[in-house]
């Protein structure tokens, strides 16, 4: 049998085998976790099958901690080690599907090419004042808002990632860090027009400085993490895979636990979203397990168990992401259990929101916000609305989080066929974050469903026009 493939034990699942051996030796969950390098909660998840035991490295840790042969887990003997290097296959980090950049053309792509080029020129005028970029002499009427802003943002980020971005001026690392801070502000304020100018320039400049050997302390990882989150939001998964993989590599090069953990969290989100389009249930379930494994394994990394509140918050964010994945797999009980674990961490940290750059923040309020989405994903919109009652929108830390709140409750209302409430929630989201609301595919889908499901009001037609569903 290949050393990289684990097969279920003859007397039951691998998690059950761990449980049996642990009990036979009189070990508690915490004691076994200390031996294997995991928390008691993580060991419990492995035993109950919530977190799948599919990673060879994890299985070897349990075999060593329990003092049993690796063959009990369907593994061969440990690989030979020579001069400190393992000889043979290893699986220290879950590997995900490679991004496919050359996707199938979408309807209307050719017709939109000229229009997008014109919009790109106009957008440079719109964001020039905020970013400090020169205004082109042939600039025309600026685009203040509209569904095209999201398309332009994706196009410019893609060009920057492929080395096609025209803005090649490279500022000093200090200026670049200041511009990165402004990019985070743009994201949290849902200022897509400004971000569409700033983020591509950051990516290009960071690549140049990294190529020159500048020790940037994450100057390349940060823009790619931000780009990944933006691409996830705009449902650009293929480009998101590419950005996430670059973010992971850049984060690992820095050795900073927060950056590495955030890269793992975003990879878990992409793994989860990729499975929504699979038609075979077995493939989808395997993908959910991969997403869950990435998030929970990263959450249990020793580097996140220090005393720094930011590290603890990042661990909570990873557990929160695992909860959402569990909800997508149809396990509402597991989702609520993981959410409760994240909430306990948040309560321990107190009411302050942290960290805020990439994640949108972690606090008792943001955990409750996340629960609204998770209940929707688990198929219980009534529970989602009940969770929403515990959140005061004004207490949410950013405009982006408030927009998510209203979009999530709009989703719950739509599933309960409460059309008027759904429209009001979407209009509230638009009031707080027009660029976010007009550009997001999730909102377009909701509005399209409203147009088809009942009477069309003036308010709905106006919203449909602004999000680009009606022209």
Describe the structure.
The chain has helices at residues 14-24, 29-36, 40-48, 56-66, 109-131, 148-161, 173-188, 192-211, 221-233, 237-254, 257-274, 281-299, 309-328, 332-349, 364-377, 381-388, 399-415, 419-432, 434-439, 441-453, 458-467; strands at residues 80-82, 85-87. It has 471 residues and is mainly alpha-helical. It has 4 domains: 14-87, 434 Repressor (Amino-terminal Domain); 111-255, no CATH class; 266-382; 398-471, no CATH class. The protein has a two-stranded antiparallel ribbon. The radius of gyration is 24 Å and the shape is globular. The relative contact order is 0.07.
Q: What would the average pLDDT be, to the nearest integer?
A: 78
Total helical segments: 21
Structural class: mainly alpha
Radius of gyration: 24 Å
- Across the major sheet, the strand order is 1-2
Question: Which residues sit in consecutive blocks of at least 5 with pLDDT less than 50?
Answer: 1-12, 80-143, 276-287
**Helix-strand topology string:** HHHHEEHHHHHHHHHHHHHHHHH
Question: How many extended strands?
Answer: 2
Q: What count of domains describes the coordinates? A: 4
What is the helix content? 55-70%
The general outline is globular
The biggest sheet, with number of strands, parallel, antiparallel or mixed sense and barrel status, is: 2 strands, antiparallel
């Amino acid at each position: 049998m290949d050393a990289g493939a684990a097969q279920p034990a003859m007397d039951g699942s691998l998690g059950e085998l761990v449980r049996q051996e642990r009990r036979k030796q009189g070990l508690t969950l915490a004691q076994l976790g200390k031996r294997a390098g995991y928390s008691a909660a993580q060991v419990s998840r492995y035993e109950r099958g919530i977190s799948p035991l599919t990673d060879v490295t994890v299985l070897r840790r349990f075999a060593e901690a329990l003092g049993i042969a690796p063959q009990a887990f369907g593994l061969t003997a440990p690989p030979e080690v020579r001069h400190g290097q393992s000889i043979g296959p290893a699986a220290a980090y879950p590997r995900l599907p490679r991004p496919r950049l050359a996707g199938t053309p979408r309807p209307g792509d050719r017709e939109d090419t000229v229009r997008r080029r014109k919009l790109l020129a106009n957008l440079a005028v719109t964001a020039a004042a905020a970013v400090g970029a020169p205004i082109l002499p042939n600039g025309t009427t600026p685009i203040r808002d509209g569904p095209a802003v999201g398309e332009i943002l994706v196009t410019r980020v893609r060009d920057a990632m492929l080395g096609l971005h025209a803005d090649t001026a490279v500022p000093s690392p200090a200026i670049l860090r200041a511009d990165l801070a402004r990019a985070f502000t743009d994201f949290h304020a849902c200022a897509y027009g400004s971000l569409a100018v700033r983020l591509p320039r950051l990516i290009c400049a960071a690549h140049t400085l990294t190529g020159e050997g500048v020790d940037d302390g994450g100057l390349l990882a940060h823009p790619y993490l931000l780009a990944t989150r933006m691409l996830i939001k705009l449902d650009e998964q293929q480009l998101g895979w590419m950005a996430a993989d670059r973010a992971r590599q850049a984060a690992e090069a820095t050795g900073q636990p927060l950056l590495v953990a955030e890269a793992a969290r975003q990879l878990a989100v992409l793994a989860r979203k990729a499975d929504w389009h699979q038609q075979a249930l077995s493939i989808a379930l395997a993908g959910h397990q991969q997403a869950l494994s990435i998030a929970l394994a990263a959450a249990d990394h020793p580097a996140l168990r220090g005393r720094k509140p930011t590290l603890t918050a990042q661990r909570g964010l990873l557990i929160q992401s695992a909860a959402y994945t569990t909800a997508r797999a149809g396990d509402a009980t597991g989702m609520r259990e993981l959410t409760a674990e994240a909430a306990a961490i948040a309560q321990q940290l107190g009411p302050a929101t942290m960290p805020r750059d990439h994640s949108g923040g972690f606090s008792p309020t943001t955990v409750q916000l996340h629960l609204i989405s998770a209940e929707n994903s688990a198929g219980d919109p009534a529970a989602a609305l009940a969770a929403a009652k515990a959140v005061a929108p004004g207490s949410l830390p950013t405009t982006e989080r408030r927009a998510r709140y209203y979009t999530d409750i709009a989703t719950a209302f739509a599933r309960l066929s409460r059309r008027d409430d759904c429209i009001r929630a979407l209009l509230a989201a638009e009031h707080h974050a027009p660029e976010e609301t007009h550009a997001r595919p999730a909102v377009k889908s909701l509005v399209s469903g409203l147009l088809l499901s009942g009477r069309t009001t003036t308010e709905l037609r106006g919203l449909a026009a602004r999000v680009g569903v009606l022209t």
